[in-house]
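Q: Protein A?
A:
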Amino acid sequence: DTLRWLFVEHFRDYDHWPWGRFNSLSRQFEEHTTFVVAELLFFSLATLSFCHAFGSREQRLRLRLVWIATFIVGTINDYIFMLLPVVDNFWQAQGLIMLTPRMPLYIPCVYNAFMYWPAVAAARVFRSDHRAWAEASFGGLLSALFYAPYDVCGQHFLWWTWHDSDPGVRLRWLGVPAGSTAWTITFGFSFCLLLRVTSDRGYKQLRSLAVLCMSTPVMLVVFNV
């Protein structure tokens, strides 16, 4: 019954919510201008990273794996966070295109942006040293630096909101919960660590992708260490 609710009934509940998959660009721009600008920016960044991953002659398969994995791993992470009561403390604004009532299409593009570039950069810095922990730590820090401006602007312009009474988001800096920043560091760390492990062990693409999908469980462990 639990699995049925997770993968079937949970999505059927969306039919009773007041939402639409597609929203008017002109109306959205009039009512929530900064949010539309943010959406278009992250769509553009996803296109840019696509050109980098699929146009590069160096490590083509690896870059393509990272690009695809950021979308899949990021979407899985967001879905898990919506299901866990302890972290189900946020609500997204309605975007131009909605995948679900709580996930605008641009959100997977945000994951792509703050996971792809830091992972690629960290791998280039440590590619000749094979220091997995150092590479993962650097990747996590880069992810947090990339994500921080988005976090600060997003909460200010109401691109999303957190439940103010939730203890997990009470401690803040510039309006951003410290837990959100800690999450970006540990999530970026976990993704980069698993990426390095799969590379060092010579895993094939599908096996590597399966391992990378464990980024959220690894992050939860690291987060509580």
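Q: Protein B?
A:
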Amino acid sequence: IGKRVGIVGTQRRGSIAARILKCGFKCDIVAYDPKPDKALEDMGVKYVPLEEIWKTCDIISLHCRGHPSTKHLVDAAAIDQMKRGVMIINTSRGDVIDSVALFAGLKSKKIGSVGLDVYEFEKEYFFRNFSGQFLKDDILARLVRLHNVLITPHQGWFTKETLTEMATTTVLNVVGIAQTGKPPPLGTQGVPTEVTAAMLVDDAEAAPPYQRGGGSAGGGPDASSSAISRKVEPGSPASGGVKVAMFSSQPYDQEW
């Protein structure tokens, strides 16, 4: 409560985080984004250069998109500018942070604590069971053992609601193009055509052990995936030969 928090990236997720921290925790919020959010500015959020965020914030929360321009945005030079004991939270993309520089900052105690839902080299490790095995990635192996580092394996989106929303948005975009030549302007909002969602359980043998049986044994998320069907009225532009099937498949190497 009352800490200065820097939000890097204030599109949908970043703006929600800013509102929660400002209204719920009374934090002093500053932000950086190439396209400032006027609604946040009206709430008193001040947009500042990245250098000011690095130098003045107690907590830095990353919400920027993956892009060559954001790769290693937090590197050794950025960390060197930060306040001693800074907390860094990354729920955006793993390579936004230089992992070697991050570990060095933790080791020197320049960084006080870290929360990661993503990791630079997560592809080889996340959503896989490494029980009883050694991690070949020395940085990740060290990070998971530190008392002041919390790592979740890219689980921020892995809920029934989010999977359904992802699948629904994808289908509505496809059907919107078929009907009007462009996707709905607000994703799933403001679209009158009926959308139905059905939860289908994946093949039990294909699922990892902790997800078999359609439950959440072992702490894993529900093993079901969302199937979204779009109902198109007879005679509409999309009714003549356009069929869309979409499954928000499990992330363990299945194809969308």
